[in-house]
Amino acid sequence: DWPPLRLLGDASYSIYLWQFIPYWLMRGVEARFHTPDWVFVVGVFVAGLVGGLVVHFALERPLLKVFRRGTPGRYT
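Below the sequence we write its predicted structure tokens.
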């Protein structure tokens, strides 16, 4: 059990939902500055991962606590 992988697993839904925003932002950057393809890929990957983790900690976990209140589980 490796904590970074557990964190990525726990945050995977937030990462999945968040990934389209960095994609569209990087499309605009790519169109304006004509960046290489690898910059686009790395930018979307990093921004999607970081943004998804932020959403996980700021929104998903607190909401899970509220909805699982009184129910035995991981986030109680």
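Residues 11 and 56 are 6 Å apart (CA to CA).
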